[in-house]
């Protein structure tokens, strides 16, 4: 809609004006509108969109912008965003760090996007128009990225929307037979690996967000894990995916094992003993691609033979946007088991040190997604995102802090190139929001956060339940990077970890 009628118009198709044409379709269609205006008179434009039909777009437009008061709309948008961003207050740090933090927090709130119309209609995975019965329907689920920190952050800040997102996923299951992998505009792109809707659902449920059909959710998770699909058939038969039969075999094996662990946790919570034992066993399949001799996760063929030659710096078809360095540590569900595989805490720490300190050279195929390198740690892509926190599991919290300081200083700043890679629907930014506050969800579904290196002197979380959780960093007592202890509500924590229940109860966490 326009703030005043236009007098004439012409349409161009493929940059060729078509006199007399009143409508057109195509990929390069333009319209030129002529208005009669006074000098410097502005023309205002309102645009409504809908995935359903033109009538839906008009209803959305009329509901959200019923008048032409531009200042009202702008002020309301500013007020809404200020309220959202004010859920976390920070004090201290530099101006650049504060700008970076709130930019990151803003990024985390852009996706998923609202997909249903104001009247509740939406286009489903089956291509048909439906009426929503369980809240609003959303789109843009970049789950391979966002299960790691974006969705866990939203369980804290946006619990009601989290329920809508889960109900949207279950709607996709109803109409498409499976949970979404990477959904876009009611279409499954299948561009990434894993069934990472699972950890999003399990993480929310175990945090007390249960206002969805839990039995259907469990059924849907099992459907994803048990689907008749070549790589999963091999995975179930051999306990790993053979590299001579499937691409991305190592990455798929590791990520399926994590997702299976999440299903096991849900089964345990629901009293489904048989499913708990079955998926717990599958969660250990990560061990089947570990090579003790080299200390890396490696591709195997159908006969169980390791592929040769092997180069951990080589980016190959056996890994998803990564190499062996960048996937070997992806066992969030059983870090203690990985430590044992590597020979204990000291060798594990040494291996992590090597990850950050070895050459940043990449061999093999070119992969633009591998960016933000510190050694072979690739912060510009998601598989590496929890690696700095793994030192905590080997009683080396100071090294976690050291690595986080490197990442902060190298790959986040208030500038056009202030991110190490694609923000991936908020995940790159959610990592910073969590980390800058001083904790991170290494393993969604565990209800546990690993403590790290807070950037700000004081952070105040205004929780949806009306409580507040305050984090203080006593910088005058400990130079940044060398906090020696954390105190929760007056009691010294014996390990550098915090659980979700402690967070949501409100209180005070002090680093010193």
Topology, number of strands? 25
**How many helices does DSSP assign?**
16
Distance between the termini: 58 Å
- Biggest sheet character: 6 strands, mixed
In percent, how helical is the residue content? Answer: 25-40%
Q: Based on helices, strands and strand pairing, what is the structural class? A: alpha+beta
Radius of gyration: 25 Å
Overall 3D shape: globular
How confident overall, as mean pLDDT?
97
The strand line-up of the biggest sheet is 4-20-21-25-22-23
**Weakly predicted, low-confidence segments:** none
Binned strand content: 15-25%
Write the layout of secondary structure elements.
Elements: E1 8-13, E2 16-18, E3 29-34, H1 54-64, H2 70-85, E4 88-91, H3 95-108, E5 113-114, E6 121-123, E7 129-131, E8 138-139, E9 141-142, H4 143-146, H5 150-157, H6 159-176, E10 182-184, E11 187-188, H7 197-206, H8 214-225, H9 230-238, H10 249-269, H11 273-282, E12 290-291, E13 296-297, E14 314-315, H12 335-341, H13 345-357, E15 363-364, E16 373-374, E17 377-378, H14 397-411, H15 427-437, E18 439-440, E19 448-451, E20 458-462, E21 468-473, E22 486-488, E23 491-492, E24 497-499, H16 500-504, E25 507-511
Parallel strand pairs: 14-15, 21-25
Antiparallel strand pairs: 1-2, 1-3, 4-20, 5-8, 6-7, 9-10, 10-11, 12-13, 16-17, 18-19, 19-24, 20-21, 22-23, 22-25
Helix pairs in contact: 3-15, 5-6, 6-7, 7-10, 8-10, 10-11
InterPro entries: 6-hairpin_glycosidase_sf, GH-type_carb-bd, GH92_a_mannosidase_put, Glyco_hydro_92, PNGase
GO molecular function, one term: carbohydrate binding
Domain Glycosyl hydrolase family: 57-512
